[in-house]
Amino acid sequence: MSDNVRNERVLVGTTSTTIARLGDSKFSPRTAILIRNNSPNAADIITLNIGADVAVSGSGLVLNKGETWTDSNSEGYQCYQGVIQAICDTADGVLAVMER
C-alpha cells in the first residue's frame, strides 16, 4: 500500500474526537476519505461533524453500525479538505478511516 494512504482504526467515545485533520502534508490535498462505523454493537451510534466544531450526538452525519460516509474528488468537485470530528453514543465506538 502507498505511504500516501491512511488506513486506521480509530476509537471513538462519548467526547468529541478529531478523526481527520486539516493540512496534514501526507494527505494534502485530500482526494478521498471513507469513514465506516465498525463498532461491535448496534448501540454504538457515531455522529460525524464535518468541520472544526465539536461533534454532538445525533446532530450531523449519523452512522449506525456498518454504515459508511465517503467523499472524493470527481469531475470538478474537490473532496472536503477540513477537520472531521466524531462522537459515539457509547464509550465503545470504532471507526475505520481510509484517507488519501
Structure described in brief:
By secondary structure, this protein is an all-beta fold. The chain has strands at residues 6-12, 17-20, 32-37, 46-50, 61-63, 68-72, 84-88, 93-99.
Ends apart, CA distance between termini? 11 Å
Please tell me the total number of domains. 1
Strand order of the largest sheet: 1-8-3-6
The best one-word shape is globular
Number of helices: 0
What is the residue-averaged pLDDT?
92
* CATH class division: Mainly Beta
Q: What does the largest sheet look like?
A: 4 strands, antiparallel
- Per DSSP, what share of the residues sits in E-state strands of 2 or more residues? 35-45%
The CATH architecture can be given as: Sandwich
| Low-confidence blocks of residues | none
Describe the structure.
- There is one protein chain.
- The chain has 100 residues and is mainly β.
- It has a single domain (6-99), classed as Jelly Rolls.
- The chain has strands spanning 6-12, 17-20, 32-37, 46-50, 61-63, 68-72, 84-88, 93-99.
- It has a four-stranded antiparallel beta sheet with strand order 1-8-3-6, with no helix packed on it. It has a four-stranded antiparallel beta sheet with strand order 2-7-4-5, with no helix packed on it.
